[in-house]
């Protein structure tokens, strides 16, 4: 563990923790966190890093799009009070709720983590309110997607206590336009979701940091992606943003 990290944690009165990282999951007090089989699950070590730095024991941590419950597992391991919501809850303790309206009091939450849908890549549920059904490009140039995400961000800002933090994990997106031949750049559409969401978040909160989370995704080595990238002259997308904001 790095010295600065150790000091920061000791400063907060906690013992430095021994962690082990296995692939995309953190093994803390002996249990795996998150559901590896849930498509779109957040790597638990991302959440672990955020909660270790920006929260203390017994803090209330909310995940408005909790999916398979990775945030709740990390909270349990770090002794934070985790509360999760989702339109398609995967566990009984995750409450069914549209994240555009959280059933929580104003300024009652110590930290919010959220990993929203990145456009329409994953079919999360049949619920028409799922933001994963809104295209971040396409005919409306993502207007409906960004409007929905602004509603979520405004709600996060409402429930956060002043002076406390939030983390949003997201990636940009790229797709081949319908009917375009091959993998060429001409027939493609780039959707800068990270920059767009960052600029929306800035209207509500103060940016603290932008972390580039490199996935070293083995899948990029399969299915001729590398060959297609060379032939089509495009970059392989190998990172996610983790935006950290503070409510003033
Ligand atoms: C990337 S996944 C979250 C993954 C989660 N962090 C995990 O580790 O399993 C995005 C989630 O957003 C949920 N979602 C989409 N629109 C929503 C909405 N309007 N309100 C609440 N949840 C929503 C989806 O059901 C999906 O579970």
Describe this structure in words.
With 248 residues, the chain is of the alpha/beta class. Helix 2 (44-54) crosses helix 3 (70-78) and helix 4 (143-159) packs across helix 5 (193-202). It contains six helices and eleven strands. It has a single domain (31-246), classed as 3-Layer(aba) Sandwich (Rossmann fold). The strands form three sheets. A seven-stranded mixed beta sheet has the order 5-4-3-6-7-11-10, sandwiched between helices. Strands 1-2 form a two-stranded antiparallel sheet. It is globular, with a radius of gyration of 19 Å. The model is unreliable at 1-18 and 27-31 (pLDDT under 50). It binds S-adenosylmethionine. S-adenosylmethionine binds at residues 34, 38, 40-42, 65-68, 70, 85-88, 98-100, 115-117, 124-125, 129-132.
Sum this structure up briefly.
Helices cover 26% and strands 24% of the residues. It contains 6 helices and 11 strands.
Which terms summarize this structure?
248 residues; alpha/beta; Rossmann fold; seven-stranded mixed beta sheet; two-stranded antiparallel sheet; 6 helices; 11 strands; 26% helix; 24% strand; disordered N terminus; binds S-adenosylmethionine
